Amino acid sequence: MGFNHQSQKKINSVIGRFAPSPTGPLHFGSLVAAVASYLAAKTQNNGKWFLRIEDVDTQREQPGASQSIIQTLESFGFAWDGDILFQSEQTERYQTALERISDHIYPCSCTRKYLQSLSDISTYGYLYPGICRNGINNPDIQNPSIRVKTNKQEICFQDLCQPHVIGQSIEQEIGDFILKRRDGLFAYQLAVVVDDAFQEINQVVRGSDILDNTPRQIFLQQLLGYPQLEYLHFPTAVTADGKKLSKQNHSPPVLTDNDSSDKKMESLLASLEFLGQNPPKRSNLESINDLWKWAFQHWDNDKIPKVMTKPTKFT
């Protein structure tokens, strides 16, 4: 079963989302993602913006992080539509989706350690060579993972920011990938696709560091019969020496309990500057509400820098 690039219909009303993982407090890179996705959706006619907490991987969740993220977004003045969706509460929906594609999945006994011993390494990590595709390699293993069968068809899409058509042959570059782990947790790739369809998301705005996930998500959308979304991947914020701003790299929180409204204003201004929007000077703004009013009037997706990474001093 092969899938190809499909032309996208013009979206009349943008439905976007911000979907942080609760592995720690929001950092500057996270704030950039929130600002970009928020304004890309809410500046459009009848646009909607949803907040989703991607806590499907409960082992990585930091206690209190979800509430911290929500409070930080509220303090910056973000206003989301509807209820917050928590992935940890959606497992029945993920299982139903898995059962819908039962002809395209199979159990796999291969452990990460075993796969790392193989020589097949792709740009994206260890290429899975289909060991269990035609029969599980170790039938005695308890709770095998579940993989999806890929194919040789190249998945292509036109990003709304990055200048070139993005293409990936998943079978050759990734291999059959996991949808449900041995520990019973559903994989991010399945969860995010199911959630986007459930919330009727039609535009995803996120950092370029997630760009290589997109072909796999389009593949699953097509396999499940979901609409294909629009994607905008803005540059990933990096330090002067090229390190990605992330919780894993111990990037500092964008906001602490003692931060003043001036610090919040500086953070939002820096986010808009990072996204190429040329915001007004701090001295011309009386409040965060003034800045949001300006942003709603002047936001332009086309001004976002068309590069994969961009250094920032705001760390």
Automatic annotation (TrEMBL):
A motif ('HIGH' region) lies at residues 20-30. Keywords: Aminoacyl-tRNA synthetase, ATP-binding, Ligase, Metal-binding, Nucleotide-binding, Protein biosynthesis, Zinc. A motif ('KMSKS' region) lies at residues 244-248. Its cofactor is Zn(2+). GO terms for molecular function: ATP binding; glutamate-tRNA ligase activity; zinc ion binding. It is an enzyme of class 6 (ligase). It comes from the Bacteria. The keyword DNA repair does not apply. Zn(2+) binds at C108, C110, Y128, C132. L-glutamate binds at R17, F18, A19, P20, S21, E54, Y188, R206. GO terms for biological process: glutamyl-tRNA aminoacylation; tRNA modification. Binds 1 zinc ion per subunit. ATP binds at K247. This is Glutamyl-Q tRNA(Asp) synthetase. It comes from Cocleimonas flava.
